[in-house]
């Protein structure tokens, strides 16, 4: 028996193929019946929205008033607090636009250019610390503090300080607890030993005590390094003698640790990962320069090198006078490396030891890539209020 010869399959024209696809889409759409989805449980709906990427949520806010009102919902705020924190974002200030910041989302590898109308336009304000989704700003004259949520534009100008210190100060920020509504505290400290703590629940500055008698003054603080927070304790980097100064926001106790930095190190800053204090810096010897990562050994209080930037990347620095700025200090770092011949942005994941290049920050409707002047890392939070 010979099977009948089947004709070869005919190739469908593009019009027929598109018809089939459009039919499939219409069938899938018809399944989403309004009678079914309008009864979708509100608590489950909020749980799904709370787990969406932040950038996606802001597109959804324009759908209806109900979705837009989620920012002020107490139940939605509690659900957002239960979602594990992802990679932090970076709020940066560029040399060309000192009054408008740029935010970088490392998960999408995308720059955002927010328009925060509440920030003072006539003053130059710089991001100096962050906690709980909020960013603390200080004007360039070191007079006034501001707190803002860059995502929702929740804004607050802090009351005037009782101690009139207009010299440069180091700033640290912590939250009082995991819930976003539990308040936050801000500490500023000057080289002469003056310091104050702001409590958002009281909306006032106070000075709980004074520096220990054994702590050498002036503090010679390293202003290139932002404060690192672990639980309720802030850590500042100092020199002469080299080491770390800490302040516990809960107990009001100051401590000092004499820890010499590695040789040939420049532009070094503190960082933190899973409760461990890290050190990031440029190691320069002869004409070779490399970015190195150290970890503080708790028993010996000495720095131990744990990673280096790939050698093939470091070859671009050979013979160049490179300067580095570390924009974040918790888990994920953004390093701004620049010289007369180059301008490079790199992220470094401390836990996974992963180095990634960052696309250049460009002005909207512009072509020029901007140099990063300063910045801070913050965990985006939709419900954090200043």
TrEMBL record:
<feature type="compositionally biased region" description="Basic residues">
    <location>
        <begin position="9"/>
        <end position="22"/>
    </location>
</feature>
<dbReference type="Pfam" id="PF00646">
    <property type="entry name" value="F-box"/>
</dbReference>
<dbReference type="InterPro" id="IPR015915">
    <property type="entry name" value="Kelch-typ_b-propeller"/>
</dbReference>
<dbReference type="InterPro" id="IPR011043">
    <property type="entry name" value="Gal_Oxase/kelch_b-propeller"/>
</dbReference>
<dbReference type="InterPro" id="IPR050796">
    <property type="entry name" value="SCF_F-box_component"/>
</dbReference>
<dbReference type="Pfam" id="PF07734">
    <property type="entry name" value="FBA_1"/>
</dbReference>
<dbReference type="InterPro" id="IPR001810">
    <property type="entry name" value="F-box_dom"/>
</dbReference>
<dbReference type="InterPro" id="IPR036047">
    <property type="entry name" value="F-box-like_dom_sf"/>
</dbReference>
<keyword id="KW-0677">Repeat</keyword>
<feature type="region of interest" description="Disordered">
    <location>
        <begin position="1"/>
        <end position="24"/>
    </location>
</feature>
<feature type="domain" description="F-box">
    <location>
        <begin position="34"/>
        <end position="79"/>
    </location>
</feature>
<protein>
    <recommendedName>
        <fullName>F-box domain-containing protein</fullName>
    </recommendedName>
</protein>
<dbReference type="InterPro" id="IPR006527">
    <property type="entry name" value="F-box-assoc_dom_typ1"/>
</dbReference>
<keyword id="KW-0880">Kelch repeat</keyword>
């Amino acid at each position: 028996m010979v099977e009948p010869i089947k004709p070869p399959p005919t190739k469908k024209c593009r019009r027929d193929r598109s018809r089939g696809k459009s039919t499939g889409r219409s069938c899938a759409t018809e399944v989403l019946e309004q009678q079914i989805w309008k009864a979708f449980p509100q608590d489950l709906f909020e749980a799904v929205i709370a787990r969406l990427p932040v950038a996606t949520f802001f597109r959804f806010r324009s759908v209806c008033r109900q979705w837009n009102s989620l920012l002020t919902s107490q139940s939605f705020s509690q659900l957002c607090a239960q979602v594990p924190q992802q990679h932090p974002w970076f709020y940066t200030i560029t040399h060309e636009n000192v009054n408008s910041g740029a935010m970088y989302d490392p998960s999408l590898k995308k720059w955002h250019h927010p328009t925060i109308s509440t920030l003072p336009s006539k003053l130059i304000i710089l991001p100096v610390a962050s906690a709980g989704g909020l960013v603390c700003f200080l004007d360039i004259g070191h007079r006034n503090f501001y707190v803002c949520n860059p995502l929702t534009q929740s804004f607050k100008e802090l009351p005037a300080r009782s101690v009139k210190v207009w010299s440069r100060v180091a700033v640290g920020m912590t939250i009082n607890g995991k819930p976003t509504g539990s308040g936050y505290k801000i500490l500023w400290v000057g080289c002469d030993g003056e310091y104050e703590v702001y409590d958002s629940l009281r909306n006032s500055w106070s000075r709980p005590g004074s520096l220990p008698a054994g702590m050498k003054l002036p503090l010679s603080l390293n202003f290139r390094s932002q404060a690192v927070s672990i639980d309720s304790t802030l850590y500042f980097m100092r020199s002469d003698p080299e080491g770390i100064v800490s302040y516990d926001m809960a107990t009001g106790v100051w401590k000092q640790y004499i820890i010499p930095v590695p040789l040939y190190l420049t532009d070094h800053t503190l960082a933190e990962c899973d409760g461990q204090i890290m050190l990031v810096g440029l190691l320069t010897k002869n004409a070779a320069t490399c970015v190195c990562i150290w970890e503080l050994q708790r028993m010996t209080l000495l720095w131990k090198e744990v990673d280096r930037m790939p050698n093939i990347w470091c070859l671009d620095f050979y013979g160049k006078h490179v300067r580095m700025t570390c924009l974040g200090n918790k888990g994920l770092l953004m390093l701004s490396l620049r010289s007369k011949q180059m301008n490079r942005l790199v992220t470094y994941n401390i836990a996974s030891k992963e180095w990634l290049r960052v696309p250049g920050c460009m002005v909207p409707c512009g072509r020029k890539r901007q140099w990063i002047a300063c910045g801070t890392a913050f965990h985006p939070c939709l419900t954090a209020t200043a």
